[in-house]
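Progress report, Aim 2. The chain analyzed during this reporting quarter is listed below.
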Amino acid sequence: MNVQTKTKAKRYLVYALIIFLAHILQNSICIFPPIFSARPILLISATVCIAMFEGEVVGAAAGLLAGVLWDTVTVTADG
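Predicted structure tokens for the chain:
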């Protein structure tokens, strides 16, 4: 494994941690108080930022991870 591959792997791991942290912050009860009964959606913002800076493939992977995490906390059925 060369240095460039290790650097990419570390960067992708940091992106996964950012998405996971955004998921935890978004779904915590009292971290962000609602303003006019609206709460911030951090997963979409984090995923869009990663996709803008890294490109299509990494953005798609980040979107997949964010979507799976979002589906773990939704009440409605899939689809």
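The chain has a mean pLDDT of 88. Residues 69 and 78 are 13 Å apart (CA to CA). These observations will guide the mutagenesis work planned for the next reporting period.
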